[in-house]
Amino acid sequence: MPERDDAVLSFLATRRSHPPKLLSAPGPDRAELTDLLTMAARAPDHGKLEPWRFVVLTRGALDTIAPLLHQAVLDDGQDEAQAQKAASAMASPVVVAVLFCPKDSPKVPLWEQELSAGAVCLGLVNAALASGWGASWLTGFAALNREFGQAHLGLQPDERVAGLIHLGTRGATPPERPRPDIDAITTWL
Predict the structure, then answer these.
(1) Kind of pairing, strands 23-24 and 160-170?
(2) Is the pLDDT of residue 168 over 90?
(3) Is 134 part of a structural domain of the chain?
(4) Euclidean distance between the first and the last CA atom of the chain, given in angstroms as a whole number
(5) pLDDT bucket at 54, cuts 50 / 70 / 90
(6) Which residue among 4, 22, 85, 189 sits deepest, i.e. has the most Cβ atoms within 10 Å of its Cβ?
(7) 166 and 25 Cβ atoms separated by less than 8 Å
(8) Are residues 83 and 143 in contact, defined by beta-carbon separation less than 8 angstroms?
(9) Is 112 within the bounds of a domain?
(10) CATH number, domain containing residue 23
(11) pTM above 0.85?
């Protein structure tokens, strides 16, 4: 019989993300964040390719990026409300951009490498939540607009943003949201 870790199972059964608007300062410091990144990097990684890397945006960088993001959204033809929403997400104490960095591999297909980058995102969120921080995984304009990513996140031509992980001190507990109906999405063979 396998040995259970009831604390981990309880965490996984009740975990929930904390949206950026519910996060406040302080965020994890450099040492704490290094520990969280180390845990996140334990994600499945076939071929040990490390098809991802981290860009840590601290408060100073976020203060610089927020107005640039606001303007970039407007320049893209979106309205003021969308620009304000995009820029307001940069109010988080810390944001970690997880970049998907595909590697040439005859054995590991691109889609597996992408899944590895996604696993790193979830691993970082879960490590932060388990450590007592608030965290959420978002994308949005800053993650999806290639020009913005290259100019402000150091995105290389072959890279994409897998996720922006927002970290900070937890505020109010977000309400529970509807969860999938497992019977409706599961086939037993």
Answers:
(1) antiparallel
(2) yes
(3) yes
(4) 24
(5) very high
(6) 22
(7) no
(8) no
(9) yes
(10) 3.40.109.10
(11) yes
pLDDT value at 166 more than 90: yes
Residues 163 and 114: beta-carbon distance below 8 Å: no
In a domain, 85, yes or no: no
Asked whether residue 187 is domain-assigned, the answer is no
Location of structure tokens 């969120």? 125
In terms of residue numbers, what domain contains 141?
Answer: 19-55+93-170
3-state secondary structure of 141: helix
Q: Are 114 and 100 spatial neighbours (Cβ–Cβ below 8 Å)?
A: yes
CA dist., res. 75 & res. 93, Å (int): 26
Better pLDDT: 98 or 175? 98
Phi/psi of residue 186, each to 5°?
-120, 130
Quick one: tokens of 71? 């303007």
Question: Which pLDDT belongs to residue 174?
Answer: 87
Contacts of 160 (CB under 8 A, 6+ apart): 99, 100, 149
Phi, psi of 94 (to 5 degrees): -145, 140
Residue with structure tokens 């960095």? 101
